[in-house]
Amino acid sequence: MPVLVMKFGGTSVANIDRIRRAAKRVGVEVAKGYDVIVIVSAMSGKTNELVNWVGEISPLYDAREYDAVVSSGENVTAGLMALTLQEMDVPARSWQGWQVPLKTNSSHSSARIEDIPPENITAKFTEGMRVAVVAGFQGISPEGRITTLGRGGSDTTAVAFAAAFNAERCDIYTDVDGVYTTDPRIASKARKLDRIAFEEMLELASLGAKVLQTRSVELAMRYNVKLRVLSSFEEQSDEAGTLVCAEEEIMESNVVSGIAYSRDEAKMTLVSVADRPGIAAAIFGPLSEAGINVDMIVQNISEEGRTDMTFSCPTDQVKRAEKALLAAKDAGQINYHDLIADTDVAKVSAVGIGMRSQSGVAAKMFKTLSDEGVNIKVIATSEIKISVLIDRKYMELAVQALHDAFELDKSA
Ligand code: ADP
Ligand code: ASP
Ligand code: MG
């Protein structure tokens, strides 16, 4: 029988009623003749609670124990979903990551999926089981420890299963009815897109649009998984939601197709470092070894052989970054006068494959922000995106102003 993957995010399984509603959706697909793999998230708020507990006990925690704790929310919903389906007379059972087994590498808290042998689940389907409910976000390392795939990782579990089982489609059920031109929660004029290209979705996700985890989009692109985002709160037709697909499958699109933002950015400045060959390597080498995801980098003009080096990284990595830089300083590898962490910043980005062929997007973006009196602290560009770092208090204003300036409420 054809296989369908259906993933339900935290708000879609937030309580027993919602689990029942999601199970009904699954029942509809089973009735159509699909063998269904359901990927579930933890109930909304649960993972945050678990993460906070870990942080309270141990600020620089052992990542293996962090994973043991934060993966547990998904175990609960997987069991509850399987029970709900059984109550509806749908043959179903739950699977934790290690039981599948979903094999990952050993990068705890941001592990990458290495293999999903389909045999165990396929054997059950052959015996008449119709739904495999799999706990999202978790796997098992070569050392036999539980791993997690990074926040939002259930999306990636879903796409990886769709690829491993050659599923007809991977449906991501969430609390919005598709991918929008920007987060509909902060811009009321945001418009739902019927289709979005993999490359654009990849940029939007990596720049903060948390509707899909970045890695899930990468996998969908690589394995050509038919990926759809839709609401678990509304009755859905086969055409509902947003299809994430190849560029060629999209007839027309705006130059800028979306605006993304990320609140969780910090700007770190090393004040007065020696401006000599190898200094960037001496700074960013230890940061990379400490697992810091450095994003934007600027080096100021040098004066009397010394310069300031500024970079951005996720807010929750600031402490680790400080520790790594201090260790490098103590070891005599680098020398700086001061290290300033500014955690009151946010990143706002414009994304669109149309930028490849049309110039003037950056100029328009900077003019729009300047008209709103928003100061730009750092700029980064690539072929299809422009990002700026600004004071966090202007983030919403900037997103709305850019959405207006690029007329994203109107389709191409
Ligand atoms: P789930 O719990 O289902 O995984 P998430 O909270 O991870 O859901 O992702 C859905 C949320 O993503 C939406 O509620 C919305 O606020 C946010 N979001 C951010 N950018 C976008 C966008 N461009 N389109 C749709 N939703 C977006
Ligand atoms: N529960 C995990 C999180 O909140 C994984 C997910 O929902 O995708 O990050
Ligand atoms: Mg999510």
Automatic annotation (TrEMBL):
It is an enzyme of class 2 (transferase). Signal peptide: none annotated. GO terms for molecular function: aspartate kinase activity; ATP binding. GO terms for biological process: homoserine biosynthetic process; lysine biosynthetic process via diaminopimelate; threonine biosynthetic process. Keywords: Amino-acid biosynthesis, ATP-binding, Kinase, Lysine biosynthesis, Nucleotide-binding, Transferase. GO terms for cellular component: cytosol. Pathway: Amino-acid biosynthesis; L-lysine biosynthesis via DAP pathway; (S)-tetrahydrodipicolinate from L-aspartate: step 1/4; Amino-acid biosynthesis; L-threonine biosynthesis; L-threonine from L-aspartate: step 1/5; Amino-acid biosynthesis; L-methionine biosynthesis via de novo pathway; L-homoserine from L-aspartate: step 1/3. Substrate binds at T47, E74. ATP binds at K7, F8, G9, G10, T174, D175, Y180, R185, K210, V211. NCBIfam families: asp_kin_monofn, asp_kinases, PRK06635.1-2, PRK06635.1-4. Belongs to the aspartokinase family. This is Aspartokinase. It comes from Roseovarius tolerans. The lineage of its organism: Bacteria, Pseudomonadati, Pseudomonadota, Alphaproteobacteria, Rhodobacterales.
